[in-house]
Design a protein that fits this description.
- It is a single chain.
- This protein has an eight-stranded mixed beta sheet.
- Strand 19, helix 21 and strand 20 form a beta-alpha-beta unit.
- Helix 8 packs antiparallel against helix 9 and helix 16 runs antiparallel to helix 17.
- By secondary structure, the protein is of the alpha/beta class.
- The longest helix is centred in the middle third of the chain and has 29 residues.
Length: 758
């Protein structure tokens, strides 16, 4: 186990690099590994090997990138759909493994097909014309999901969309093993959908338990399982694999002991049946990282049983860690990797070597206590949320899903092949059993304090939490176990940084082609626009704004300003108002669903927070013809700087502002009007504002071409510091007693796989 931990440390160290060292460094390090191994410094050799191996794999993965000359160009490709497609409101998203890559085209790409006229299925081979770009994701504080890292870990080296002309063609092709596996999984999903009742409410959960497909799970269902700490039940992992293997082992051993040949011992036959069943189930689940880890551990355990060797649980876990990291050093980029291995390590820590085995309910209680406490620091780091009701919810949900629903769902798969009519009744039963579970969990999710939101702990708090958790979970007799509580305190009492009186912190969040801004004073918070809502599953309010607010330990906002009704400014407002219903709303969008406390945005409104003045400059009493020009324009005046929030105003509104305010528009920081379009940021308006810092909220290679080159030249003529979310990710501007501090999230947390936006 020590060598496995050192290997892990070396792999993690490489994944923190802002740029990759030369491959020659890896070759030199492998020579060092050889010397260290010969001198029996095995742990140190594992550390260096982990770094060198991850470096070689990273260079290989980064070499398979889209050629810059092909970015934004139409390219014809042919390949097979590598996973189960995901259906959204107006598009289908899928991964394509390119069969015969053209020079500069990666071997695996992620595509969107908008309003497809043909059904697309996993494992199909297509010839289509696509428009590609290099991987690029949103980078924001508090957002644990790094899309670019996820693409890298999954071997996806370009993203894009399918062009309607020429029409895509479904073509025959040689079927590979992975393609055949995907076709099989797709056939299983289609058969379930065909057999199930149209009114089946929980078909998505049944698919999650059987084939690992989470495409039909609704956002509301995700939220309830997340709040109750039962999300792990929807991800096929160690508990599911172990359950299937255990059931097959017991059944096969009893059958063979009674009816089988004595040429092979019952335990050997049972182990073979259990491993084969686990392998099939893992294939159904698509061999995800938790499944790989569980299958490796099960393989070692079954081999030890066959060879009648006593192998410690820690050694099995260490071997699983070695195997996963050798096969995929990018696995450490996934949150699921850490949660999966840590959960198993915690269960081993509280169970291995105990003199007396607990009963079922006592064991379940102990395991839930261990996992809840042990994973809390990791959940605080990644999500800033901890479910307080997880132990109670899991006490019912684990046996309900593990003992009843999982075997039933797998039995339904078998029945669906032989007796579809009987499988139909089985699906109805499973749907009803899921309804019982849902009623319980949904009710518990509504309890006050079902979960707590906490600031992200600093690194030293996490370092102290590891021995603290180990001490608290140590067996009775361990000296001074109670001291573990004190080691956890730095992670609980995290200082919540705030601006001083008269100061302002503005954060322009990276929401792609849209706008979402958070303005903080000493004791108040205003959100200016909320980004877009692209589908039921993709909402910038839910996926970007709320995680950022949790990251800053903000559990309530004072004012939400929706500048106007365009989706890229207002789409996330529903999610934000649902999460923070007491916030006052100020908007010029007449159609927006309004809470009880809401006002129209009109020039002349003003207020003061903590020594900072807020003034609404536009729109006036007479509305403009264009919706963009009716954007709510606000000037924020702090002690040492002024901020101009402009929404999507264009030339007409800019002229009106000039006539009414003239030189009073002068501001230190300006949000670029209308994302820097050529119909805005007129020369006269910029001369009046004279911004020293211009913040441009624009999507990476957006289809509108924002910001316009001519507008950027006008900003440069003012000698302004120009920042663009497409290049910089989220941008933070903080006033102080002396100078303004500007920080770029993409530069602050630069990793070798990140694109700079060029």
């Amino acid at each position: 186990m020590p060598s496995a931990l050192m290997l892990l440390l070396g792999v993690v160290a490489l994944q923190q690099m802002p740029a990759l060292p030369s491959p020659l460094v890896a070759a030199a390090l492998l020579l060092v590994v050889l010397v260290l191994a010969m001198r029996r410094y095995l742990a140190l050799a594992a550390l260096v090997f982990g770094f060198a191996w991850a470096l070689l794999m990273a260079h290989d993965r980064m070499a398979d990138r889209l050629a810059p000359s092909l970015q934004g160009k139409d390219v014809q490709v042919e390949g097979y759909v590598a996973d189960l497609p995901r259906q959204f409101d107006d598009r289908v998203s899928f991964d394509l493994v390119v069969s015969h890559p053209l020079p500069g085209v990666p071997g695996k790409i992620r595509l969107n097909w908008y309003r497809p006229e043909l059904a697309i299925k996993g494992g199909q081979t297509w010839r289509m014309t696509v428009r590609l770009k290099v991987p690029h994701g949103r980078v924001n504080p508090g957002n644990s999901f790094d899309y670019e890292a996820w693409l890298l870990a999954n071997g996806i080296a370009a993203t894009g969309y399918v062009r309607p002309h020429p029409p895509p063609q479904l073509v025959p092709g040689d079927v590979h093993v992975k393609q055949a596996l995907t076709q099989w999984r797709q056939a299983v999903v289609d058969a379930l959908a065909q057999t199930a009742s149209p009114n089946a409410e929980f078909l998505g959960l049944i698919e999650a338990l059987t084939v690992g497909s989470q495409n039909r799970i609704t956002p509301a269902q995700w939220q309830v399982f997340r709040t109750t700490g039962t999300l792990h039940l929807l991800v096929i992992s160690g508990s599911h694999i172990s359950l299937v293997a255990g059931l097959l082992f017991v059944a096969a051993r009893r059958f063979w002991a009674r009816f089988g040949s004595m040429r092979y011992a019952p335990h050997i036959t049972a182990a073979s049946a259990a491993w084969t069943g686990a392998l099939v189930y893992s294939a159904l689940a698509g061999f995800s990282i938790p499944v790989q880890r569980a299958l490796v551990m099960l393989s070692v355990a079954m081999l030890a049983l066959v060879w009648q060797r006593n192998v410690s649980a820690w050694r099995v876990l260490g071997l699983a860690l070695w195997t996963v990291l050798l096969f995929d050093p990018f696995a450490v980029l996934a949150v699921g990797f850490w949660l999966s291995f840590l959960a198993v390590a915690l269960l081993i820590w509280v169970s291995a070597g105990r003199s007396r085995l607990p009963g079922y309910w006592q064991g379940l209680a102990v395991s839930q206590y261990a996992v809840t406490l042990g994973l809390a620091p990791v959940l605080m780091l990644y999500f800033q949320q901890i479910s307080l009701i997880a132990p109670l919810a899991n006490a019912f949900a684990i046996p309900w899903v593990g003992v009843i629903l999982t075997p039933l769902c797998l039995l339904i798969l078998c029945l669906n092949l032989l007796l579809p009519e009987l499988a139909r009744y089985g699906l109805a039963l499973a749907d009803g059993l899921f309804a019982v579970l849902w009623q319980l969990l949904d009710g518990m999710a509504q309890w006050p304090f079902a979960q707590i939101v906490c600031p992200q702990p600093p690194w030293y708090a996490l370092a102290l939490a590891v021995p603290g958790v180990a001490m608290l979970l140590a067996p009775k007799g361990f000296p001074h176990r109670y001291l573990g509580v004190f080691l956890l305190l730095p992670g609980v009492f995290v200082e919540n940084a705030k601006p001083a009186a008269g100061e302002v912190w503005l954060t322009l969040l990276d929401v792609g082609q849209g706008l979402a801004t958070v303005i903080q004073t000493r004791n108040h918070v205003m959100v200016y626009d909320t980004g877009a809502r692209y589908s039921e599953q993709t909402d910038m309010g839910e996926s970007v704004l709320l995680p950022f607010l949790r990251y800053r330990a903000i559990d309530a906002i004072d004012l939400l300003v929706v500048s106007h009704g365009d989706n890229d400014h207002s789409g996330g407002s529903a999610a934000l108002m649902t999460a923070m219903p007491k916030a006052k709303l100020l908007t010029s969008a007449s159609w927006l669903d309004r809470p009880a406390v809401a006002d129209d945005c009109l020039a002349g409104q003003s207020w003061s927070w903590d020594g900072v003045t807020f003034q609404v400059l536009s729109p006036g009493e007479t509305a403009f013809l264009k919706e963009n020009d009716n954007s709510c324009v606000i000037k924020v005046v702090a002690a040492t700087a002024a901020f101009l929030l402009t929404g999507d105003i264009e030339a007409s509104a800019e002229r009106d502002l000039l006539e009414r305010y003239g030189s009073d528009l002068a501001s230190t920081v300006m949000l670029a009007p209308h994302h820097g379009s050529k119909t805005s940021s007129t020369a006269a308006f910029l001369r009046a504002v004279q911004p020293k810092i211009v913040l441009i909220p624009a999507g990476f290679h957006n289809r509108f071409g924002f910001p316009a080159a001519s507008v950027v030249e006008r900003y440069r003529a003012l000698s302004a510091d120009i920042r663009n979310t497409a290049h910089d990710g989220a941008i933070s501007v903080k006033t102080g007693k002396q100078a303004i501090r500007v920080e770029s999230e993409r530069q602050q947390h630069k990793r070798y796989w990140m694109q700079d936006g060029d």
